[in-house]
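User: Show me a protein chain along with its predicted structure.
Assistant: Here is one chain, sequence first, then structure tokens.
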Amino acid sequence: MKMLRFRSPSIRSLDQEVLCTIRLLDDSEISCTIQKETKGQFLLDHVCNHYNLLEKDYFGIRYVDPEKQRHWLEPNKPVVKQMKSLQPYTMCFRVKFYPHEPMKIKEELTRYLLYLQLKRDIYHGRLLCPFAEAAYLGACIVQAELGDYDPEEHPSDYIRDFKLFPKQSLKLERKIMEIHKNELRGQCAALAELNMLQRAHSLETYGVDPHPCKDFTGSTAFLGFTATGFVVFQGNKRIHLLKWGDVSKLKFEGKTFYVIGVQKEVSIKKLVLTFHTSTPAACKHLWKCGVENQAFYKCAKSSQIKTVSSSNIFFKGSRFRYSGKVAKEVIEASSKIQRDPPEVHRAQFGQSRSFNSLSHKNLIMNMEPLVPALPSTNEYEEAAADPGVVTVKDPVPLSPLEPSAAAAEAEQPSAERGNVSLIDDLQPHCVSLETSNLPPLTANAEDGLEEDDEGSGALTISELAYSPCASMLPTPVEDSQGGVNQLFSSPVQSPARLLRELHADPDIQAQLEAERERDRAFERTRLATRSQMSGILASSLQLLSSNERVNTWVLGVARFVAVLMGVLLITVPTLLLLLESDIDVSFLHEIRQTPEFEQFHYEYYCPLRRWILCKISMAMENLWSD
């Protein structure tokens, strides 16, 4: 008899190992090998162990598929089944959920990683800020990277080497130098980073990862999810803010994304926002991001998270459930950390590969056509070859919502008072600036590395054109030119002009008239049905109230039906228990032995049961014969 021999799991898995490269927030890279069944949580834990990071629920790993669509790596699914690109895999470690209050982060290491993410957001134009805020944030970055200003070491134009914003003016550089020299002197890197987080989290676009789409008029819009709720931007202006408590459902069908909620401005009414993405994959990614952000920021416990469906029809659409902790649980877990603070290895500003590779390139993005989140390689080549910046058409905001300055000013002093002790703790034991072990990369070396990655088939995340404001207005706006009001303005079109263009088109006019006629017909039918039903009910109530004898009779019949139903609900289960069960209890046995029960059982119950079984068998035979 021969024995079957199987290869051991360790030998069998040798040919299934996959190399994964993860690009970190400071643009350094770490690599590891995974098996075919390795889940995404392993890679996230691998990066967190590399950092010695405990507050890891704010972070995630992002990758790009061959269709240039970005995705978040799901922790509870195998990596190989999620990645559709060629091996080896290349991914990015990024902040997935921005803390609503960065001052509540327990460890300096976590704050440093959030600082790196915000520095990227500022450079790529995702974090919009007026001139004064931009100068202060830039000065905090310079203080964290260089330390105190030293006239012997720093020349007169030392800020010019720092590429902080997508469009950096000489006036802004002078203001940054002024704040760096006078206001931030004596602050260590950790304290400067903390001040930067405290100022950045009060901005309107803090934590917004913009998703490009089209609204119902065909205008380009950018959707985002923050700790407050769902936001919509058009032309760098926020036109919608729907808080998570007012969002009842998120769903998608094909390329169409729906946000269903309630509007509480004047009266409570249902609100349905409709948007169209470039591809079904982009729409599904948008829906997943919305579901995850709503669960993270809205739920009080992870046990309250439910599986959601993308459609109301049973057995149709996608089903998804966020599987991590929620914000309140993360804050509570952070407060219970009992360990010595880990050492923070800070990389110098000049060693960031993304900043070196992008320092001499213009950020170009055409907002008029609907483009995917990540442009193709040809678009990158055209952007690098064209020395100018494309001018774009600014879409018109439909229902602008002005930000509440009073609320922001009211929140800022309370946050400062509640966190004085945290700032005092950071001042005595600041971590010294350290240089990364990676050698500095020039722009040419970075370009060569990008070409090698593309040639090998490994897709990397580039945020060159993923900015809603890169080609429209500089991120910092001078106060003399209107400040933040000009930044959030739409100079090209006006609402009146958009309405004139819409009404001038005969096709749109005919479509609008047909929709109005359908609405009027539906309203007439609804009113007629309602009036007819109300007339019937009114006449019935008048008849009942006018005749006291009829009213008494109806109440008596209702009481009789209620009593009869209660008796049947008690009697039928009791009879079935006596007639069909084999429970041998003393009082049941005595009831079964009585002559009346035996007569009922053999003369009435048994014939009724045989008749019912005969009818059921005949129906089953007819069904099978058909």
